[in-house]
Design goal:
This protein is an alpha+beta fold. Helices cover 46% and strands 18% of the residues. α1 runs antiparallel to α4 and α5 crosses α13.
């Protein structure tokens, strides 16, 4: 509201709330810090899990940062920006989501201390950007090389990713599966498409029963009990049109005046369906995957010819089948040729966890594979899937970039040490921001120590002292509670986890710091009577989650 000659002028809609200056900054920073502290306790091998219950009563138990923030119903706009950090990290690398959010929160916490000392936000932003640029340079110097054939190192990277997650119990076997799966689908000079590794979950059995199938597992069953359950040396037809009599585009009526006409009409339908099956048979196919429906009569003829058929297969599964078997997805039966068929050593229907599933195995050079995950309960299998997804993604990043760094807080402590030296060479107030950036990075080893029940200050002092003596790969061994060479302890991570975490955290923190005015529109009140929901003004400006 503004005043002109004593007359009030309404600029914002009634009920809108406006927060300005220091007040707006401190509220935004508080919201971001709250989000960071919500996930901080999940970091590291001794991190704890969160149980999230949604409005429908569905339960998710996880310590995956991105999943936790996705499931939380977050209201505050600055807090939502912190959730974006986790989303970006998850999309780009797949792991390190908690680290990215925790660093983002710590950068804002350190910035708040500088704001109280009257350092201008734009100076802090400039300092943070300089520090981030320097951090990328230092990371490149710290990184070590890895090749796609170095399976031992790739397994260590996958193990580091799985440690502290639900998948940890059987991590030796699971990392083996993940590394083998990524190496199978990797092609030289091409970006690895981790979507070509299908994770199929089935409750029952234990985590150790999880297997890698050099081909595909389709959660469907044969369309007809008369079809063979097992086909060896399979020739596979992939068709995305229906094996049914098509309806005409326009509404057409057929007038039948005599019983023999009716018979002729039905006979013609039968002949058309038999013709379709004959075409499949003539191509040499003995297995058929159809994206749409298969007519009952066509099912009967397929069974008679000894062809194993599956209908209503998902489009994504059809694409993976084509990659795994080397077949082509055909739009019509007219164009079916023997060279378009895919091949597999074995196609079999098996009962897994009470459900029938089709296994397409022993493909020659599969560019799509399946990992069948087993576990005692649904929550166990879900967490296993999240851990496995992270492991697959980090292996893919390491293979693509060919670079990895030490984990366990070693990289962060080394960066902090070098950034403090760099800050001394930068003039002006920006050096305060660079020092704050260096302090913020040390939140990672500090959080690892806290979660392991160790004294964070003692731990940090010991780590700094180790790095000052030139031990740049020393990080925190949470089991021994002392600085240890992380390369020897097999705690390593892809370089991209660190670069992406620093870039997302810095960008979000600088964006939040530059905001000095929050204008929140009034909420539309729900139509119900009194007490009918979260209407009312100002909801956006309050730290409520």
């Amino acid at each position: 509201m503004a005043q002109l000659g004593g007359t009030p002028i309404l600029i914002l809609k009634e009920g809108s709330e406006r927060t300005r200056g220091k007040d707006a900054q401190s509220r935004n920073i508080l919201a971001a810090k709250t989000i960071a502290s919500a996930v901080k306790s999940t970091l590291g091998p001794k991190g704890m899990d969160k149980m999230l219950v949604d409005s429908m009563g569905d339960v998710v138990i996880t310590n995956d940062g991105a999943t936790i923030l996705k499931e939380m119903d977050i209201e505050h706009p600055a807090a939502k920006m912190m959730v974006e950090i986790a989303k970006t990290q998850d999309n780009e690398v797949g792991d390190g989501t908690t680290s990215a959010v925790v660093i983002g929160g710590e950068l804002l916490k350190k910035a708040e201390e500088l704001l109280e000392q009257e350092v201008h936000p734009t100076l802090i932003v400039a300092g943070y950007r300089l520090a981030a640029e320097k951090a990328y340079e230092l990371l490149k110097e710290l990184a070590l090389e890895v090749t796609p054939d170095d399976t031992a190192t790739l397994k260590k990277i996958a193990m580091t990713s799985m440690t502290g997650k639900g998948a940890e119990v059987a991590k030796d076997m699971l990392t083996e599966l993940a590394v083998e799966a990524v190496r199978m689908i990797a092609e030289k000079g091409k970006k690895i498409d981790t979507d070509q590794i299908k994770l199929e979950k089935k409750t029952g059995g234990s985590k150790e029963d999880s297997v890698l199938i050099k081909g595909m597992v389709i959660d469907k069953e044969r369309v007809h009990p008369g079809m063979p359950k097992l086909v060896e040396n399979a020739k596979i037809a992939l068709i995305n049109s229906a094996l049914e009599i098509e309806k005409t585009e326009v509404d057409a009526k057929i007038e039948i005046t005599a019983p023999d006409q009716m018979k002729a009409f039905l006979d013609e339908e039968e002949r058309m369906l038999k013709g379709m099956v004959d075409k499949i048979k003539a191509s040499g196919a003995n297995v058929l995957f159809c994206q749409k429906g298969i007519d009952d009569l066509a099912q009967h003829y397929l069974a008679k010819e000894g062809i194993l058929a599956v209908r209503r297969v998902k489009e994504s599964d059809m694409k993976k089948l084509a990659s795994a078997t080397g077949g082509k997805i055909l739009t019509t039966l007219e164009e079916i040729k023997p060279e378009d068929l895919g091949t597999a050593g074995l196609v079999e229907e098996r009962k897994i966890g009470g459900d029938e599933m089709i296994f397409v195995e022993n493909c020659k050079n599969p560019k799509a594979v399946t990992i069948l995950l087993r576990g005692g309960t649904e929550h166990v299998v879900d967490e296993l899937e999240r851990g496995m997804t992270d492991a697959i993604r980090v292996i893919a990043c390491a293979v693509e970039d060919g670079k990895y760094v030490a984990g366990g807080g070693a990289t962060e402590v080394e960066l902090a040490l070098k950034l403090r030296d760099y800050a001394a060479t930068v003039g002006g107030r920006e050096q305060l921001a660079i020092q704050a950036f260096a302090d913020a990075l040390e939140v990672i080893p500090r959080a690892l120590a806290e979660n392991a029940g160790l004294d964070p200050i003692d731990t940090l002092v010991a780590l700094r002292s180790a790095h000052e003596q030139g031990n740049k790969y020393h990080g925190l061994d949470v089991y021994k509670g002392e600085p240890t060479n992380m390369l020897e302890a097999n705690v390593i991570e892809p370089l991209r986890i660190k670069t992406q975490a620093i870039s997302s955290a810095t960008e979000s923190a600088t964006m939040i710091l530059r905001i000095d005015d929050v204008i929140a529109a009034s909420r539309e009140k729900p139509p119900s009577g009194p007490g009918g929901g979260a209407g009312g003004p100002g909801g956006m400006g309050e730290e409520e989650f």
